[in-house]
Amino acid sequence: MTTLFNIPEVRAFILHWGEMGSQWGVNRSVSQIHALLYLADRPLHAEQISTVLGLARSNVSNGLKELQGYGIIRRTHVQGDRRDHFVAEADLWEMLLRIAAERKRREIDPTIALLGDLAAQLDGRSDVPAHIRERIGRMHEFIGTLGGWYEEVRRLPKSTLVTLMKLGGKVARLIPGKSTKP
Q1: Which of 10, 38, 79, 146 is the most exposed place for a label (fewest CB within 10 A)?
Q2: Helix, strand, coil % over all residues of the chain, rounded to 5
C-alpha cells in the first residue's frame, strides 16, 4: 500500500483533497483518509491508513467514524483477517448525493427549524424593528425554498442530474419569458 502513496500524483491528490476538505469545513485528516480509500484498489484497515498517511491511530479511527456517518465509506471484512477494513464509495454521483444529504441534515434542516421558530416568535411583535422581522422571515423562506428544491432534485434519476448539469445555464431557456442573460 505504501507503493500507492509513493506515486507523486497520488500524494498530490491526497494532500490536495485534505486542503479542499478543510476549505469545506471537514477536518484535513478526514479528507485525506477519504482520498486514500477512494484511490485504493482494495479495502484497507485502520493500521494501513495510519501508516500510509502518517496519522495517529486514534485520528484515523475518528476519521473513519465521521466518513461512515456521511455514508461515503463502509466497513467490510476481508477473509482471513479479523480487522475491519474500509472502502470508499466509488460512484461519484452517489458520493455527492450522500454528502449533500448529510450536510443538509446537519446544517440546513436545523437552520430552517430555527428560522421558523424565530419568525413565529417575532410575528406581530411591535418591540422589534420591522426590518428585523422581515429579514428573518425572508431568510426562513429562502432557506426553506432551497431545502425544498434540494428534496425535489435528489429524487431525480442520476441520468437526469447529469443532463441538467451539462445544460448549465441553458436550462433557463426552458422557462417561458425568462432571459438567459444575467
Answers
A1: 79
A2: 70, 10, 20
Q: Distance of CA 165 to CAs 93, 94, 102, 113, 176, Å?
A: 12, 15, 21, 30, 20
Residues 24, 41: Cα–Cα separation, whole Å: 26
How many Cβ atoms sit within 10 Å of the Cβ of residue 45?
17
Residue type, 102: E
Q: Write b or e for each residue in 2-23: b if 16 or more Cβ atoms lie within 10 A of its Cβ, otherwise e.
A: eebbeeeebeebbeebbeebee
First-to-final CA distance of the chain: 50
* Model pTM score: 0.81
Would you mind telling me the total number of residues written for the chain in this entry?
A: 182
Beginning with the edge strand found earlier in the chain, give each strand of the sheet holding 81-88 in spatial order: 44-45, 81-88, 73-78
On whether the CB atoms of residues 21 and 53 are closer than 8 A, the answer is no
pLDDT in tens, 88-147: 999 999 999 999 999 999 999 999 999 999 999 999 899 999 999 999 999 999 999 999
